[in-house]
Amino acid sequence: MQIHSRFHPFLILLSLVTASCSTVWPEYERPPLELPAAPAKPLSIDRQWWKAFEDPTLNALVDEALLHNWDLAKAAANVAEARAAVASAKSLLSPRVDGVINASSSQRQLTLGSKEFDDVVSTGAVSAAVNWEIDLWDRIRQMNDAALARFAASEHARNATTLSISTLVAETWFQLRVLDAKLLVTRAAAANSKSVTDLEFRRWKAQVGTELAYIQSLAEYKATEARVPVYEEAVSQTELALKLLVGRSPRALGEPVPRPSLQKLRDQDLPEGSMPTVPQTPREIDSLLLLRRPDVASAELLLVAANADVNSARAEFYPRLTLSLLAGFVASTSSAISGMPLFWEAGAGLIGPIFDGGLVQSKVDAAEARRQK
Three-class SS of residue 90? Predict the structure, then answer.
């Protein structure tokens, strides 16, 4: 099979450049970690860990917080932005096709022998332009790797935000339940102390007891009673903090947070399973679970993206090979052109930096600095 001579320059150029492509960029390597041995049975992580307490009120509060939290909405927007960046970087690997419409008019004064031509010639063309950069030095692939790593990091960051919100809501909820219990116990203790004080007063007046016993019981009663408003204020402040955490509107801040009555739990025997259960914690902890924490995983993926950014910036020191094709139809009022003939133009360009005032090196330095953060 013979190749037309018009394609020889393109084939020679492509062969020379391809033969010179021998750069292998360093891949990301995880730093060595000195971790203890993992347990025999691997552990799993439940993203909805708070449901292990089997508390319907806690489940509703966490769901409400995740629905109304603006930090989580911002994290979701960051994920969408990173997903769009992945699509943008991926598009660089494929050719770009543009539609081109040109229209022009020209007038030239020509003299041929004794005749002079001074006509206006109008020309119009409809064509398609194809441009494709050949990724010789993996510059575009490194950009894709960086975009994919940042996309995965944004998802881990969203998971970390979800974990932080759910943890804070659960801690505040349990703190509120503890304060409720302390308030109930303190009120009961104050009532018992008052009964003891009244009894000691009657004993003293009946000359069965002593004034000292009455005064001691009265002081104990007053001290216990003084703790009641303290716990009431703590319950009120914690309940307000929980409402703010779940994103309640200012109009709904006056509504109390629904929770089981501790008085009923104290006065009646409830069947097993009606109280929130405390999940069993594992005795052995896999140290590798640390690497699966959303914030740690996000930080490592950002380091992967920074490493790819450095490789992509360094690849700009090397020339780029671009293939182009322009084809379409042309129409003109010139007598030299009849009908709408087809035209095409193919080319290959190799461009590389000779002097840029340190632009590429500054990009490499900036990428290196971002990797060291």
Answer: helix
SS3 208: coil
**What are 277-323's pLDDT values in tens digits?**
666 665 555 666 667 788 888 888 899 999 999 999 999 999 998 99
> Are residues 148 and 360 in contact, defined by beta-carbon separation less than 8 angstroms?
no
Task: Take residue 355 and report the two structure tokens written for it.
Answer: 């002097």
Q: CA 241, 245, 251: angle at the middle one, nearest 5?
A: 80
Phi and psi at residue 40, in whole multiples of 5°?
Answer: -65, -40
Task: Report pLDDT digits (tens) over 122-145.
Answer: 888 899 999 999 988 889 999 999
Q: How far is the C-alpha of 17 from the C-alpha of 13, rounded, in Å? A: 6
| Cα gap 152→158, rounded to integer Å | 10
CA distance 246 to 59: 11
Tokens of 367: 């990428």
> Per the structure block, which two tokens stand in for 343?
């035209």
d(CA 161, CA 293): 11
Indicate the length of the chain as a whole number: 373
Could you tell me where the beta strands, DSSP code E, fall in the chain?
96-107, 110-112, 115-117, 120-134, 320-332, 342-351
